TrEMBL record:
<dbReference type="GO" id="GO:0050661">
    <property type="term" value="F:NADP binding"/>
</dbReference>
<dbReference type="Pfam" id="PF00743">
    <property type="entry name" value="FMO-like"/>
</dbReference>
<keyword id="KW-0285">Flavoprotein</keyword>
<dbReference type="InterPro" id="IPR020946">
    <property type="entry name" value="Flavin_mOase-like"/>
</dbReference>
<keyword id="KW-0560">Oxidoreductase</keyword>
<keyword id="KW-0521">NADP</keyword>
<dbReference type="GO" id="GO:0050660">
    <property type="term" value="F:flavin adenine dinucleotide binding"/>
</dbReference>
<dbReference type="InterPro" id="IPR036188">
    <property type="entry name" value="FAD/NAD-bd_sf"/>
</dbReference>
<dbReference type="Pfam" id="PF13450">
    <property type="entry name" value="NAD_binding_8"/>
</dbReference>
<keyword id="KW-0274">FAD</keyword>
<dbReference type="InterPro" id="IPR051820">
    <property type="entry name" value="FAD-binding_MO"/>
</dbReference>
<comment type="similarity">
    <text>Belongs to the FAD-binding monooxygenase family.</text>
</comment>
<protein>
    <submittedName>
        <fullName>FAD-containing monooxygenase EthA</fullName>
    </submittedName>
</protein>
<keyword id="KW-0503">Monooxygenase</keyword>
<dbReference type="GO" id="GO:0004499">
    <property type="term" value="F:N,N-dimethylaniline monooxygenase activity"/>
</dbReference>
């Protein structure tokens, strides 16, 4: 008789080896070095977003002193940096802390089933290179794969799309051999990707047109933080790093609060800055004056005003109009104008996908995400031993990831200290009013909001987007909460008071 192959068990399984996953691994092994863990990465490389996207000019629109980790100073003089430098930073950090040795590539989590009797998850994993499926078990799942689909971007229906004789490209799948030099390029979109692509292509393309249906708020920012660089020279990297972070966190918070509290004043200020960057007589209100308030959607940052410079130098054009149809040679607009194009880039956004599309079950019952409520923005009501990482939409993503990871490791310490092996959030008021998980007007969020968990009307069930509040909630306050149910396998439930 053959002996069944034993199923591997890990204390913590981290899903994703990008920015969030590497951060989660660092905090876990720092605070719980005795725990076994692995990072499962569906792709063939670490880095997540920063390895996936290969379009020209790709960069962060948050400063790297806050977008980087609190435990790893950003040492490059450019605080707004491109993907190559961000990747070097991420991979260097993973290597320095031995995290890269825990990554298992080509490993996509398909499903996870929780057993309360055994107090563990059984996880089904598919090899993306061979299709083979295996299983392993873990005490905790930490989902760190972001919130959008890696295998496809969003492209709306365009009438006549099949007629276009040129090349149609989505930035999420930029061909390595695409050469736009000397070609007429139309970039459809007005978000961060579009405002990055346009100046990057304008240097060599015959013409570049950013075609937008609705303008976005666009602000020039310095690519280098001169004060930060001076502090680093005077104090050294290690001592300067926390000071620079605090400075940039405070600056970002003040900008966001100003936009929220005084939207009309903020709108006028942004328009004034834009007008100074653009040629005299430029129709600023037509192309750079959105109908919504500042920070209802994310502001687009352009390092050293490169988009505006390309417009001033007549190397790029912005057109605000609606598409009637694609033609054989370009795009026909409602105004009657036709934009000729050899290449059309659909910088039209992302497709959201909660938890990487993993199907969860708890004691045989499928988890319906829209029926759950997010606890502290990191766990789901009724789902034991599952944590997830979703960062800020109004600030540097990583600021929240660090706080969530710290809270996660403190929660593990509490379980260890009291002999518990599982915990799940449960609202004390089952009739608590709920609303969408993200209060964000961006199209990619609104298209998928019905697929996401909900948030409540009070803490700890609110999805906080305020760093100062989260420092108190996640770093300072106790992990003990009357809305957490702590249990021991095989024992009666115990509710923390």
């Amino acid at each position: 008789m053959s002996t069944p192959t034993p199923v591997e068990h890990l204390d913590v399984l981290i899903v994703g080896a990008g920015l969030s996953g590497i951060g989660a691994a660092y905090y876990l092994q720092r605070d719980h070095p005795q725990r076994s863990f692995a990072l499962l990465e569906a792709r063939e490389a670490t880095g997540g977003t920063w390895d996936l996207f290969r379009y020209p000019g790709i960069r962060s629109d948050s400063d790297l002193h806050t977008f980087g980790y609190e435990f790893a100073p950003w040492r490059d003089p450019q605080s707004i940096a491109g993907a190559d430098r961000i990747l070097d930073y991420l991979r260097g950090t993973a290597a320095e802390h031995g995290i890269d040795g825990h990554v298992r590539f080509h490993s996509r989590v398909v499903a996870a089933s929780w057993s309360s009797e055994r107090a563990r998850w059984t996880v089904e994993v598919e090899r993306t290179d061979t299709g083979e499926r295996t299983a392993l078990t873990c005490g905790w799942l930490f989902v760190a794969g972001g919130y959008y689909r890696y295998d496809e971007g969003f492209t709306p229906h365009f009438e006549g799309r099949e007629r276009f004789a040129g090349q149609l490209v989505h930035p999420q799948h930029w061909p390595a051999d695409l050469d736009t030099a000397g070609k007429r390029v139309v970039v459809i979109g007005s978000g961060a990707t579009a405002v990055t692509l346009v100046p990057a292509l304008a240097g060599t393309a015959a013409s570049v047109t950013m075609l937008q249906r609705t303008p976005s708020y666009v602000m020039p920012v310095p690519a280098e933080d001169k004060l930060a660089n001076r502090l680093r020279r005077v104090l050294g990297e290690e001592r300067a790093h926390p000071l620079i972070r605090r400075k940039n966190i405070a600056k970002g918070r003040l900008v966001w609060q100003f936009c929220q509290r005084h939207p009309e004043r903020a709108r006028k200020l942004i328009r004034w800055v834009n007008a100074k960057q653009l040629p005299d007589g430029y129709p600023v209100d037509e192309h750079f004056n959105p109908p919504y308030g500042p920070w209802d959607q994310r502001l687009c940052a352009v390092p050293d005003g490169d988009l505006f410079r390309a417009i001033r130098e007549d190397r790029a054009e912005v057109v605000t109009d609606r598409i009637v149809t694609f033609t054989e040679t370009g795009v026909l607009l409602e105004s009657g104008r036709e934009l000729p194009a050899d290449v059309i880039v659909t910088a039209t956004g992302l497709n959201l996908q909660a938890f990487g599309g993993v199907q969860f079950t708890v004691d045989g019952q499928e988890v319906q995400l829209p029926e759950t409520v997010a606890y502290k923005g990191m766990m789901l009501s009724g789902v034991p031993n599952l944590a997830f990482a979703v960062g800020y939409t109004n600030s540097s993503w990583t600021l929240k990831i660090g706080l969530l990871c710290e809270h996660f490791t403190r929660l593990l310490s509490h379980l260890d200290a009291h002999g518990y092996d599982s915990v799940r959030p449960e609202p004390r008021d089952p009739d608590m009013p709920t609303r969408p998980f993200l209060d964000f007007a961006a199209g990619y969020v609104q298209r998928a909001i019905h697929q996401l968990p909900r948030q409540g009307d009070r803490m700890p069930w609110l999805t906080s987007m305020d760093y100062r509040s989260d420092v108190k909630l996640l770093r300072v306050d106790s992990v003990v909460d009357p809305e957490l149910v702590f249990t021991r396998s095989g024992a009666a439930e115990q509710v923390a008071a």
